Amino acid sequence: MRLAEFAERDACVEALLAHYRANGFPVYDLSLRERADRLASLMAFDHSTILKGSIIRQTMHAVSLVWHYNPHAWVIRCGNKRTPMDVFLDDGLFKKAIAKRLALGSYLTDGGIRKALSTFSGTQRVSTFRPTAAASVYNELLPARGGTTWDCSAGFGGRLLGSLACRRVRRYVATEPSTATMQGLEEMRDELVPLSGRKISIELHHVGSECFLPDRNSLDLVFSSPPYADHERYSDEPTQSYIKFPTRTAWMEGFLGCTLASCRRGLKQGGILALNIAGVPSYPRLETDFLALAKREGWRLQATLRIEMSRMVGTRIHNGGSAVKTEPLFVFAKR
Q1: Which of 21, 219, 223, 296 has its CA at a distance of 20 to 30 angstroms from the CA of residue 175?
Q2: What gap in Å lies between CA 154 and CA 225, rounded to an integer?
């Protein structure tokens, strides 16, 4: 690279830094028309194509809707990693992130900046359950006549969106302890249910799943992805499970144990419990401990589906493509 090119690149980095310092973090900010278009695309997508054998594929349909309603997600910490906001607020790190992105091309969008901040070395952003994958699970596990599902850890709304896309969901009940996330879920419900044209009941409860008592025998399906202990710290509110139950044993018994008891109370005979839960660096035995708890509490594992998460860079499989990271979705039936 010639000196002039160095100077041009550095000037571009400084200009972009100045732009984002003046305009703030590039959160998703979709217009009402854009939100309606994203929802229409999700509802038109054939989610029956997502489940292939035991693999739940992922697509990006309507994921931008999730982040539009949850701008606080950029500051949520995963383990000991930096957040995208940490990188954004540090001039030195932000300039390095911009420079790395510029090396891939001269034109940068807000989306490119978000990706640069999220993939910067030592950084991890929170994820969301893909709405098309959620719709596929509902279609597979709910009765053909339709029914009621409880999303015991609603999170950022991927499964709420999936409930709009699957006609088998007649009633969606959700619990979520984070105040900011609950606000996003309420806005999502209030704006998107009318746009969907669905006659669906959506009930949102601002409480942790360990404190919620569903009506007995009222649920056809419990389908969710509980927090992975303290790996993702969604807020610092005292209602957060990692704060209420600070040790592994206390969390497993007090949070997951009580949640499983509520699942048994709420599910109809033959109802389905499907939980996505996986080990993380801070708790590598999470899957093993959860399965042991479920077995002790009388849950019989029926199947394990695998959810595609992301491509694993630098890894190859036999047909030449990139290997795919997956997480389990454990499926139990109430007997």
Answers
A1: 296
A2: 8
Contact 50, 11 (CB under 8 A): no
Whose CA is closest to 118, among 70, 81, 148? Answer: 81
For residue 261, pLDDT over 70 is answered with yes
Paired tokens of 65 = 């809707």
Q: Mind listing the pLDDT tens digit for each residue in 103-136?
A: 887 678 999 999 999 999 999 999 999 999 999 9
What's the rounded Cα separation, in Å, for the pair 133 and 162?
7
Look up the pTM and report it. 0.93
pLDDT band at 311 (very low <50, low <70, confident <90, very high): low
Place of tokens 């995963």: 78
Q: Is the pLDDT of residue 1 over 50?
A: no
Rounded (10°) angle between helices 32-44 and 158-165 = 60
- pLDDT for 151 equals 98
| Rounded distance between C-alpha atoms, residue 17 and residue 218, angstroms | 53
How far, in Å, CA of 67 to CA of 27, rounded? Answer: 8
Tokens of 320: 């030449």
Q: Per the structure block, which two tokens stand in for 197?
A: 């044209």
Task: State how far the Cα of 231 lies from the Cα of 279, in Å rounded to an integer.
Answer: 10
27: DSSP letter: -
Residue 136: what are its φ and ψ, rounded to 5°? Answer: -65, -40
Distance CA 100, CA 130 (A): 28
**DSSP strands (E only) in the chain:** 51-52, 55-56, 77-78, 147-151, 169-175, 201-205, 219-224, 232-233, 267-276, 300-316, 322-333
3-state secondary structure 10-52: HHHHHHHHHHHHHHCCCCCCCCHHHHHHHHHHHHHCCHHHCEE
Pairing of strands 300-316, 169-175: unpaired
Nearest to 181 by CA among 65, 73, 61, 25: 73
Longest dimension (CA), the chain: 73
